[in-house]
Specification:
By secondary structure, this protein is of the alpha/beta class. The protein is 35% helix and 18% strand. The longest helix has 19 residues, at 199-217. The model has no long low-confidence stretch (mean pLDDT 96).
């Protein structure tokens, strides 16, 4: 097994050993192991996280190959969560990884995130984001959000003392129970599979991993709601911070 500190030799001039130890001792849940989640998981491992819970109910298919870094011709049909676990074990054997190939809903979200230091949103639907963000807020766990469309991407973090995901995007579920009618409304938002260029989710992944690192170690400034870091890969002035 490789030495943990030797593996991070190029990183350590930038942070203190105590700061890095905070990350080494942290447990992070990543929900979604596809376009955004796959590389986020790998980057967290390369940054030296101590424990990961990775969750995705889906399997790889051919259409994933343009952007999902964990996908390959050889693993089409394989569970994304298990492929994420196998990749982390190859990259950083010091990480404890638990994978779940299951749908996230109100029945299991508690067990998936309750003892995590941070939750990363690598999801592709609004309903599950609402469920997870609510539970993270209840437990006062930072919820690092990321989303993409085409060449556009956005990243921000929701904390217990900031406006919520539902508030910021003025969702129909705000201050409402998740009744059948509300659930249907949430499912209708951005339904279908959006177009996306390969680099877009991977850039969001790297940004989310660094936001997680900053939150846990206390190094650097974090983009916190209602501010959102946005980018357009086709724009000359690619990055901007907007306030909702």
């Amino acid at each position: 097994m490789c030495d943990y500190w030797e593996m991070l030799a190029r990183q350590m001039p930038l942070v203190s050993e105590d700061e890095q130890k905070k990350f080494k001792n942290a447990k992070i849940t990543v929900i979604g192991c596809g376009g955004i989640g796959g590389l986020t998981i790998e980057m967290l491992a390369r940054l030296g996280v101590g424990e990961l819970v990775v969750v995705d109910e889906d399997v790889f298919d051919i259409t994933n190959l343009n952007r999902q870094t964990l996908s390959s011709i050889d693993n089409v049909g394989n569970e994304k969560s298990m492929e994420a676990k196998l990749r982390v074990e190859k990259v950083n054997p010091h990480v404890k990884v638990t994978s779940f190939s299951e749908h996230v809903d109100e029945r299991n979200v508690d067990s998936l995130i309750s003892d995590s230091r941070l939750v990363i949103d690598a999801l592709d639907n609004v309903l599950t984001r609402v469920i997870v963000s609510r539970k993270a807020r209840e437990y006062k766990i930072p919820f690092v959000h990321g989303a993409v469309h085409g060449s556009l991407g956005q990243v921000t973090t929701f904390l217990a003392n900031t406006i919520s995901y539902e508030e910021m995007f003025n969702l129909p579920s705000l201050e409402n129970d998740l009744t059948g009618e509300v659930v249907d409304e949430l499912k209708s938002i951005a339904s279908g599979k959006p177009p996306v260029f390969g680099p877009t989710p991977n850039l969001v992944s790297c940004l989310q991993a660094m936001e997680a690192y900053k939150i846990i170690t206390g190094v650097g400034k974090v983009t916190v709601s209602p501010k959102v870091l946005t980018f357009d890969l086709f724009d000359f002035n690619m990055f901007s911070v907007e306030e909702f």
